[in-house]
Design brief:
Oligomer: heterodimer
Structural class of chain A: mainly alpha
Structural class of chain B: alpha/beta
Low-confidence stretches of chain A: none
Number of strands of chain A: 0
Number of domains of chain A: 1
Strand order of the largest sheet of chain B: 6-7-8-3-9-10
Strand content of chain B: 15-25%
Shape of chain B: globular
Distance between the termini of chain A: 21 Å
């Protein structure tokens, strides 16, 4: 992989996000607002809120990650940057990996940080909060990697935002199951290590495969 | 030592490679834009790509840059297909119609980013010098969003000043939005590049080429007219015009 291209794209995207801080904060704002609606919608019963808390946090994290996906490559395509980035044949993989990494840093990491607070808000026991935190550390990069594939596949298409959601949500179901399952295991007095291991394996598989697929999709989009 | 402008490509110690297009055809969607294109761009040459709207000028530039594959034929740099040539990636500067600048970066940051991803000198001093070459001294820290279209074009073209090696420059409408001073600067930069043995493939609708290159020992600019290529069937020999530009008379 072209390390110089990776570093340049990653650092540029972080710099751009810093310059558009309000825009970059929208996914985490959506995450907090959406999760906060559940007590209003399903009622303030503490036992029920505690039971649905892992699922609520994970689903809201998934939707928040999808919210920030459409512009991942679209702005680079529109201003000509993507053409310049893909001039070298070996650059597509580095560009894809850097954009995925930057997306997680900008959108995924704040979700991970905010998740325990939402867990507390929904009455999640303190012993389950670290597991929720770890599951999101392992799971949110998977969402960024899968989202990158969806964003690249729909690049230049109309209704790309909706198509990304339709492509990525089914693929993200395993991460959702293992992530919420880890917290549920602790709630049931079991070890969460099995779920977390599967989540880790999913992350490794996506880390190895998704940037390659994303890079290939970007090349096809430019042809 | 002779000035750069008086050096001929032949006088350079190692001759840069030539670009060869062999029986190239290009398709966009269902439409065959051109076919049977054979052309060689030698070191030190400038080839002005001409043709009406939609004739495939930009498409041909993208083929040469390796961003797309031709429908048929081969595009070679140093006798290696451009899409598989590491040397071509080092030697190529492609300035597309879009400037590839981010509004939220400063002019220096935007130029340094493009230099970095293309493996060129992105040191602050080099970037400042490149911007100054195109009349942007003092505007290094100006956000791109605050620059006019012409100034943005200058920032994009400043990449040429960061590429001293005699490679291939592929330029899509480089004179667009430039004022008289910037146009003259671009001519000087192009002439200097050709004097070092570099080659240029460009397209423009309004090309006031500096063909009055008095004092230069450079090959005369040539034109390649895509309008003369008949799409849908192979072009016969000489179907595309290669001649000195008539507009300069």
């Amino acid at each position: 992989m072209n390390g110089a291209v990776f570093a340049a794209v990653y650092l540029r995207d972080l710099r751009l996000a810093w310059r558009r801080r309000v825009e970059a904060a929208l996914p985490v704002a959506f995450f907090i607002v959406a999760a906060s609606l559940f007590p209003l919608g399903v009622g303030p019963e503490p036992q029920m809120l505690r039971q649905i808390a892992p699922g609520v946090v994970w689903v809201c994290a998934l939707l928040a990650a999808m919210l920030s996906m459409p512009p991942l490559f679209a702005s680079d395509l529109a201003d000509g940057s993507l053409e310049q980035l893909l001039l070298a044949p070996d650059a597509a993989l580095a560009v894809a990996a850097a954009k995925d990494a930057a997306h997680w840093t900008i959108s995924g990491a704040p979700l991970v940080v905010a998740a325990p607070l939402l867990g507390l808000l929904l009455g999640l026991p303190s012993e389950e909060l670290p597991v929720l935190f770890v599951s999101l550390i392992l799971g949110t990069p998977v969402l960024s990697l899968l989202g990158g594939v969806g964003a690249a596949l729909t690049l230049g298409l109309r209704s790309a935002g909706m198509l990304i959601v339709l492509i990525v949500l089914p693929l993200a179901i395993p991460a959702l199951i293992f992530g919420t399952g880890a917290v549920a295991a602790v709630d049931a007095g079991q070890s969460p290590s099995g779920h977390l291991s599967l989540l880790g394996a999913l992350l490794i598989a996506c880390g190895l495969g998704a940037p390659v697929a994303t890079g290939a999709a970007l090349r096809i989009a430019l042809e | 030592m002779p000035p750069a402008s008086s050096m001929t490509p032949a006088s350079l110690p190692s001759r840069p490679p030539a670009l060869r297009l062999v029986d190239v055809a290009c398709r966009r969607g269902e439409r065959l834009l051109f076919t049977g294109l054979n052309e060689t761009l030698e070191p030190g040459e400038l080839l002005w790509l001409r043709g009406g709207n939609g004739r495939g000028k930009t498409s041909l530039l993208r083929l040469v840059a390796g961003l797309a594959a031709p429908e048929h034929g081969r595009i070679l740099w140093d006798d290696v297909p451009v899409r598989r040539s590491p040397r071509f990636q080092r030697d190529l500067v492609y300035v597309a119609h879009a400037n590839a600048l981010k509004d939220d970066l400063t002019a220096a940051e935007a130029l340094a980013f493009l230099a970095r991803v293309h493996g060129r000198d992105a040191a602050p001093a080099a970037v400042r010098a490149a911007l100054a070459r195109f009349g942007l001294a003092g505007r290094e820290r100006t956000p791109v969003r605050s620059l006019s279209q012409g100034l943005r074009r200058r920032v994009s073209l400043a990449r040429l000043a960061l590429a001293p090696e005699p490679g291939l420059w592929v330029l899509d409408e480089p004179f667009d939005s430039l004022d008289i001073g910037a146009t003259a600067t671009l001519h000087e930069v192009l002439d200097g590049h050709r004097a070092r043995g570099g080659s240029v493939l460009l397209t423009s609708h309004h090309l006031p080429l500096s063909v009055d290159a008095a004092g230069h020992a450079l090959p005369a600019p040539r034109t390649l007219d895509l309008d003369a290529l008949v799409a849908g069937r192979p072009a016969v020999a000489g179907a595309f015009a290669v001649a000195a530009p008539a507009e300069t008379a």
